[in-house]
Amino acid sequence: MKPVISLLPLLPLFIPLIGAPVAWMMPQTHRADQIRRWWHASVLFLTCLLLLIGPLYNGKVAELPFQTLLGSGESLSFSLDSVGRTFALLLTGALAAVSISSLARPIERFEAVLSLIIAGASVGVSAANNLLTLCLSWGLMDIALLGLGLVHVPEESISHALRNGAINLTSVVILVAATVLPTLQPTEAHWWTNLSGLPLQLLMVVALLRLGVYPLPGSVNRRWEGFAVSVCAGGYIWLRIAGGHEGVLPGTEWLSVIMWIVLLITGILTALSPDFATALPYVVLNHMAILVLAPLLDAQTALGVIVATALNLALCLALLRVDLRVRPLPPLDRWVRLPLVLALASLAGWPFTLGFYSRWTLLAAGWQQGWHKGVLVGAIAFALASIPLWQRYFQLQREVREDRFPRWAVKAAVAVAFLLAFLLVLSGVAISVLRVVPLGLTQEFPTSSLAGLWPGSFRVFAALFLTAFVVPFFGGYALHRLRRRIPGGANVWLDTPSAVLELNWLYVSIELILVRGRHLVEQVLLAVEESFYLGWILLWGLVLLFYFAGR
Q: How far apart are CA 270 and CA 388, in angstroms?
């Protein structure tokens, strides 16, 4: 009985993984697809409830009752604390919110199964107590992501899914290398403590690969779960590295320069995008650059920025997805789109939002560390990144949606949307104004890690107000008005710089080199096996002759 009780903290991990095969065993019919949707939403909702009551078992270590085949003798060890619960809850909560808002839409077998596997694997990543557990959970998550990217997607999207799969496979291989390095001896400490040298560098690469290798943005409309996984899993690993490492991270100087450049390029690509749906992936990558850059500039305030950025992206992505099911509903009428407006405002960095706090703190850290040119680059990038958000905001005023869903389903979607908007506003006010980290993270994030809006000098405050608010807000609006005046035929001239900045030519070149390399290897093997078969027979004959002669 005692071993069973010790595994109770792992219920948020087991329930989605057990629910996945149950969803698979349901038949592939329209009625079963509707039942599968309710089952999918119920499993995710129950997982979120178990994560919310996590303080009852915070810090308790649970091990699965078997040893691994590795020589170190480590077993699968799990331990959920406030940080792990928060990032696991971000992903599972976003998946649950979207599933509840879509109860009227049947869900296919593969989508339900892979979604539940992702939810369970995310809990495993957040609860991993050693690198072995982290590696296995990470690999399971990547398998599910590859399935989501390949199953039932247009043919033209398969190459993109394979590229993402190759990047994910690379992250798994690097994580395996960090796990089996002889310098990493099994200890009672967590995997993120006492990191240094090559293991630290490998884990940094793993986190960067998960956060999104530029510029593989994918499509939020098709597989938004991939972006949610990048934000929550990659943000969690990056947070652990930044919080558990004492001193300056390796490669800070050149990596900081690259992140400032990525911040600017993603802003340009956002501005060049023809519509909001195309621009949204670059908006997400722009925020991910903030998340990566923050600990490179200032380790004291970086933790609050990472949490704020991850909260902002997870809630906004879920809100954008839930809004697809929202329809005008009396007596709210058009006010039902207010949650979407709040999500756009937070992504655009309007005051008292999570997006504004992240940008303000990042630019303040850059100003204090002497990155004055970087602060200017950030202000320009934020102004460019807000252009499609203004476009989407003005589209809402004249957008009309047909009521094609049952009334109860619309009410559920509206309720979920307002709940997510409330959490978004509450988190923004708590972090940016009250300097309090929500979700029970106060102990892990002391007040010193949360930067206030007042930097201590009126001159610095004026500079930050100009670069973090005036230029992005009014500059973005002015550029939006200017973009509307450009004739439609002139947009063709923008395709060339956009294609160059997206680096598709680089990926195509790499794939071409790999294809030619494979062809060369095939020709060599063909020649060896067919043209030189007689030589191989003579060679092996000589080997046997010398072998028997030596005896």
A: 7
User: What is the C-alpha to C-alpha distance for residues 210 and 225, in angstroms, rounded to an integer?
Assistant: 13
Residue 68: inside a domain? yes
3-state secondary structure of 353: coil
pTM of the predicted structure, to 2 decimals:
0.89
Q: Is the pLDDT of residue 168 over 80?
A: yes
Judge whether 453 lies within some domain.
Answer: yes
The answer to whether 114 touches 147, Cβ cutoff 8 Å, is yes
In terms of domains, do 170 and 282 share one? Answer: no
What is the structure's pLDDT at 130? 83
Residue 63: which pLDDT band, with cuts at 50, 70 and 90? confident
Q: Considering only CA atoms, which of 90, 84, 81 is closest in space to residue 126?
A: 84
Residue 222 inside a domain? The answer is no
d(CA 388, CA 117): 34
Q: pLDDT tens digit string along 465-482? A: 899 899 999 999 999 888
User: What is the chain's percent helix, strand, coil content, to nearest 5?
Assistant: 75, 5, 20
| Nearest partner of 389 among 244, 463, 284, 299, judged by Cα | 284
pLDDT at residue 551 is higher than 60: no
What range defines the domain where residue 537 resides?
508-550
3-state SS assignment for residue 192: coil
252-259 long-range contacts, CB within 8 A, separation 24+: 252/296, 255/292, 255/296, 256/293, 256/296, 256/297, 256/371, 256/374, 259/289, 259/292, 259/293, 259/296
pLDDT in tens, 265-279: 999 999 988 888 888
Q: Which of 15-29, 159-173, 187-201, 515-529 has the highest mean pLDDT?
A: 15-29
Q: Could you tell me if 321 and 256 lie in one domain?
A: yes
Residue 7 lies in a domain: yes
Q: CB under 8 Å, gap of 24 or more: what pairs does 199-205 form?
A: 200/241, 200/245, 200/249, 200/250, 201/250, 201/251, 202/174, 202/175, 202/177, 202/178, 203/175, 203/178, 203/237, 203/241, 204/241, 204/249, 204/250, 204/251, 205/171, 205/174
Total number of domains in the chain: 3
